[in-house]
Design a protein that fits this description.
The chain is an alpha/beta fold. A seven-stranded parallel sheet has the order 1-4-5-6-7-8-9. It has a two-stranded antiparallel ribbon with strand order 2-3. A hairpin with a 3-residue loop joins strand 2 and strand 3. The longest helix has 25 residues. The chain is globular, with a radius of gyration of 19 Å. The two termini are 17 Å apart. The relative contact order is 0.11.
């Protein structure tokens, strides 16, 4: 369930007291505990690494902070060639050792598979260029069209860093990884092909030799599923804006992940059970299905509703 660790859990809120998000994800003991908490409480079928998709920013040369109630905020946005020249490739063992240590510890304690993750180049670029979260990503969208040299150089850097980071996570023991393209839904298919496709292929093709499953997820992607499948990935993540049945009609047969609307989780057990069972039935019609939310769980989700979801899915 995206995301399994979080403020909907009282034990997580207690764990995070007096600690910033960056402190929490950078401290293996805390990150391990945050990852294990939902497994202990709910018995999910897989654990999801407690981290943030933006942690690679610091080792590549873009200092940032994760501000409560806001999200990642970059100290010096990357908008010119001179800005871009301050960024670099990095080795995850040196730049993000705490993440890899967290994975190694978790693999000693978990009895279920561990899923690692990071952000996709477009989503990472949107934070770097906008300087933080954005509703429309207009600076990013304009730069990718008006400054193609800058854009492709940035994408190549982010794609290679993403490949290195996910490779390191898998080598450290992660059983699968997910590439989060949280904001990719703001562009069209033609732009994806021109500005992103070669860079995304670089990531997925580079991960293939490791032989572990890779999930490719984005939001607002109903018009992009075909090209996202071309980019790569063993599993295609689908958000709640399209049914699994309709999504499957747009692509070649492929396992899918999804896709309960997170808003359903703040309704009641009857609505949750009805919606969940529909998704389980749709999942039976495709080559494989990982039941998940269509995006992140809301902090005000009642614990009882998470329990109702688990009961509905498992009984279905």
């Amino acid at each position: 369930m995206m995301r399994q660790a979080g403020r909907y859990l009282p034990e997580y809120r207690e764990l995070r007291k007096g600690k910033t998000m960056l402190e929490a994800v950078s401290t293996p003991d805390i990150a391990v505990e945050a990852t294990l908490q939902p497994i202990r409480r709910f018995g999910f079928d897989a654990a999801i690494l407690f981290s943030d998709l933006t942690v690679p920013f610091t080792p590549m040369g873009a200092p940032f902070d994760i501000k409560e109630g806001v999200g990642p905020v970059v100290a010096h946005p990357i908008r010119t060639q001179a800005d871009l020249d301050t960024l670099s490739l990095y080795e995850p063992e040196e730049g993000l050792p705490f993440v890899l240590e967290t994975i190694r510890i978790l693999k000693q304690e978990l009895t279920v598979p561990l899923i690692g993750f990071t952000g996709a180049p477009f989503t990472l670029a949107s934070y770097l260029i906008e300087g933080g979260p954005s509703k429309d990503h207009k600076l990013t969208r304009s730069l990718m069209l008006t400054e193609p040299k800058f854009w492709h150089e940035l994408m190549a850097l982010l794609a290679e860093n993403t490949l290195r980071y996910l490779t390191a996570q898998l080598n450290a023991g992660a059983d699968a990884v997910q590439v989060f393209d949280s904001w990719i839904g703001v562009i069209d298919e033609a732009t994806y092909r021109d500005c992103l496709l070669p860079h995304m292929k670089h990531i997925f093709e580079g991960l293939k030799p490791l032989g572990k499953p890779v999930i490719h997820f984005g939001t607002g992607t109903s018009a992009l599923l075909k090209v996202m499948q071309e980019a790569g990935g063993d599993v295609l993540g689908v958000d709640w804006r399209i049914s699994l049945t309709d999504a499957a009609k747009l692509v070649k047969p492929i396992p899918m992940q999804g896709n309960l609307d997170p808003a359903v989780m703040i309704t009641n057990p009857e609505v949750i059970a009805r919606r969940a069972k529909t998704i389980v039935q749709q999942g039976r019609e495709i080559p494989g299905h990982i039941f998940n939310l269509g995006h992140g769980i809301y902090p005000d989700t009642p614990i009882a509703n998470v329990e109702a979801l688990l009961e509905a899915v498992h009984s279905a």
